[in-house]
Amino acid sequence: MHAVAAAGPLPPGAERLQVKTPDGEVLHGVFFPGPAQTDAPKTLVLGFGGNAWNGQDVGSYLHELYPDVDVVAFHYRGYWPSTGKPSAEALLADAPLVYDATIAKVRPERTIAVGFSIGSGVAASLANRRRVDGLILITPFDSLKAVASSLYPWFPVGPFFKHEINSVEGLRGSAVPVAIVAGERDEIIPAERTSALRNGVPNLVFDRTITRAGHNDIYTRSEFQAAMDEAFEAVLHR
To answer: pTM of the predicted model, to two decimals?
Structure first.
């Protein structure tokens, strides 16, 4: 089981979700509904967190950012309370299952996938397999293997990554509008890996690098909050 911070009680109105995988694992998620009455098209934000995030925190954060839409996020396989063993293969395989169950429940008119760090690769892959109306990728990368090779150039990392997460391949030929928000001083995702993704996105509609922000402290910056609002509007109206 992958250790992440424990999730607390849900706020009023939120709901716990479950999805059973074909191999018998159970994925746990959270649903934060938007306003019941609105004239705007029903919009869903589907969140995919980073390595140390639990799904409830992802959902809570996105619900605070975008209170006028429905928000759903799941704990990855092997991230408590979801069962199973985490792997790159599992992240990619489970995303369409989560999507299908969420769409059946929420029945949105528009779906925006938001991916943080490693979750950006999951979101990009999902957009190649399911209908997604927009992608917002935070501190993203082109290739998980390339990130590892950049961080540890002396280590023959390739053979140890049985399953790749390749965001460029996931978006190749895609017309989905994509927004990228990166940190200027990201110490985890090298700038060249984000640049490689940027250059490989067919429909990049928003691109913002937060000055002096690192991989983790980017979320504390007021410029980041503003960028997330702008990114949402950019992908929604392209």
So the answer is: 0.92
